[in-house]
Design a protein that fits this description.
Layout (H helix, E strand, L loop, with lengths): L1 E2 L9 H11 L3 E6 L19 H4 L2 H4 L2 H6 L1 H17 L4 H9 L5 E6 L5 H4 L6 E2 L2 E8 L5 E2 L27 E5 L8 H13 L2 E5 L11 H7 L3 E6 L10 E5 L2 H9 L10
Parallel strand pairs: 1-10, 2-3, 2-8, 3-4, 8-9, 9-10
Antiparallel strand pairs: 5-6, 5-7
Bound molecules: ligand BV8 and zinc ion.
């Protein structure tokens, strides 16, 4: 594998191939997971020491059935996570992605993340496959709601906070995220698939590729003829012919990679 991070020195073979693929691309998809926000201090899910799942069993907090049983625990935990995002800053990786479009190429951002760090550095049209911590919705009638910022700050990660009520049917508000066993928002999923099938290069940043159907996206890109560039601190590639693996931190690899990509001759 090619170390393209801080100790790579001369660009590795995959770094050169990756910059060549991007330089010849008209449409680039950036597909991100929790790893792109890790260096902003937002916990990933499966990192053994710092991952959310190291402290919590996802089955107890990221499902509708738990919300039914203990809405205060789930609502409090999500408000606490929202607070982590509000206190976090986008990092050099989010910034690099937002600046890639300035090379005159079409750049689409598809994220599994529920934070808004891509948007906070200017990325537009971000597709959130798993929803967002920025809004809520009614558990009963699904009407969209806002977040009662007045309920923050949350005293502790396990604080029990009563969810507010829906203005239309007085059902409980829930986080506007996709829980396990729930379908992804169909319009978002369809748009994402169309972009992945039509891109020249897909950069998959900071994802362990465990959660489906999102995890199928890099392989759909490959089967549609695109080059896939993985950026991760661990090796997640399957060594397909058009699959490149850049091992390193997103905040180091992405700026280094994109600095090698000149302006497009035919701006998109
Ligand atoms: C669905 C929102 C149809 C909530 C999330 C059995 C029963 C029922 C369902 C299933 C089943 N088996 C499988 C399923 C399907 C299930 C699933 O995939 N389960 C997993 C656990 C196996 N999926 C679903 O249920 C989906 N819906 O399939 O609908 C259906 C309907 C009914 C019944 C069946 C099917 C819905 C899934 C959405 C779940 N919601 N988030 C919340 O956040 O609270 S998922 C959540 O986890 C994230 O959104 C994200 O998608 C995922 C985390 O993955 P990653 O982003 O990859 O993060 P992770 O920590 O894993 O990895 C971080 C990576 O970054 C690592 O590789 C690390 O090395 C790297 N990294 C770390 N630091 C850096 C770095 N890289 C670069 N730089 C760094 N600095
Ligand atoms: Zn309602």
């Amino acid at each position: 594998m090619n170390q393209a991070g801080e100790n790579s020195g001369a660009p590795g073979a995959d770094l050169k191939r990756a910059s060549d693929a991007l330089s010849n691309a008209g449409h680039i998809v950036c597909f991100s997971g929790a790893g792109i926000s890790a260096e902003s201090g937002i916990a990933t899910y499966r990192d053994p020491l710092t991952g959310i799942w190291a402290q919590h069993d996802p089955r107890t907090l990221e499902t509708a059935s738990t919300f039914r049983k203990n809405p205060q625990l789930v609502w409090g935990w999500y408000l606490w996570r929202r607070q982590q995002v509000v206190n976090a800053q986008p990092n050099a990786a989010h910034l690099a992605v937002s600046q890639l479009a300035a090379t005159g190429r079409k750049v689409s951002v598809i994220t599994q993340n529920v934070d808004d760090l891509h948007e906070r550095v200017g990325s537009v049209g971000v597709l959130h496959l798993h929803g967002s911590l920025s809004t809520s919705k009614c558990f009963a009638c699904h009407r969209l709601g806002t977040l009662p910022e007045h309920q923050m700050p949350i005293p502790s990660e396990g604080a029990l906070i009563e969810p507010p009520r829906c203005g239309r049917c007085s059902g409980k508000l829930r986080p506007n995220v996709v829980w396990y066993g729930e379908d992804l928002p169909s319009g978002v999923w369809k748009s994402a698939i169309a972009l992945v099938k039509s891109c020249d290069v897909l950069i998959s940043v900071g994802t362990s590729g465990i959660v489906t159907p999102a995890a199928d996206i890099p392989w759909l890109a490959l089967s549609s003829g695109a080059t896939v560039i993985h950026v991760n601190t661990e090796d997640v590639s399957t060594a397909e012919p058009n699959e490149l693996m850049l091992i390193g931190k997103a905040t180091e690899v992405l700026p280094k990679l994109f600095a090698l990509v000149p302006r497009a001759e035919q701006p998109q």
